[in-house]
Amino acid sequence: MGYYYRNNIHPYTECLRRQESLEKYSGIIDLKVIYPEGYDIEGFLQNIAFRESNRCFLCYEERLKSTALYAKKGKFDFFSTTLLYSKFQKHEMLRSLGESIGKSIGVPFYYADFRKGWKEGVEESKRIGLYRQQYCGCIYSEKERYLG
Fold it and tell me: How many Cβ atoms from other residues are within 10 Å of residue 123's Cβ?
């Protein structure tokens, strides 16, 4: 079961492109995905404003907490994140936050280093014509991507 967290992705058109790509891929592998309604970019920005130097931690925390709450509601055995696939993400921070959130919410966090298949995953995504995002998702990472 998948869960698409969208509140950090800017601009909204990027959010939609990523969702369309997930819909295509989930159809190929027969994966059910929860797509919550809404798009709370304002809430994301309010949480990050004046704390930009800590934005990844705050973003991870919100994403993992949201995922864990859905996992608890759905009575899942574990929760995890696709961020663990990226060689650009902060794995130790993700692991620590995931484990802490899992304990506080009551659903264990599943950690695995999925980066081992990164190159093969990139090749496969290109082969099947999936959209490949060019930045993490937030407005700050978009700026870094395009302005250097």
Answer: 9
Q: How far is CA 133 from CA 100, 125, 126, 145, in A?
A: 29, 11, 12, 11
Which tens digit of pLDDT belongs to each residue from 100-125?
999 999 999 999 999 998 999 999 99
Domain housing 82:
2-147
CB–CB of 106/118 below 8 Å?
no
Q: How many domains does the chain have?
A: 1
Distance, CA of 24 to CA of 17 (rounded, Å) = 11
| CA distance linking residue 71 with residue 93, whole number of Å | 20
Burial (CB count <10 Å: 0-12, 13-18, 19+), residue 68: buried
3-state class of 55 per DSSP? helix
Q: Which sign, positive or negative, has the C-alpha torsion 74, 35, 129, 136?
A: negative
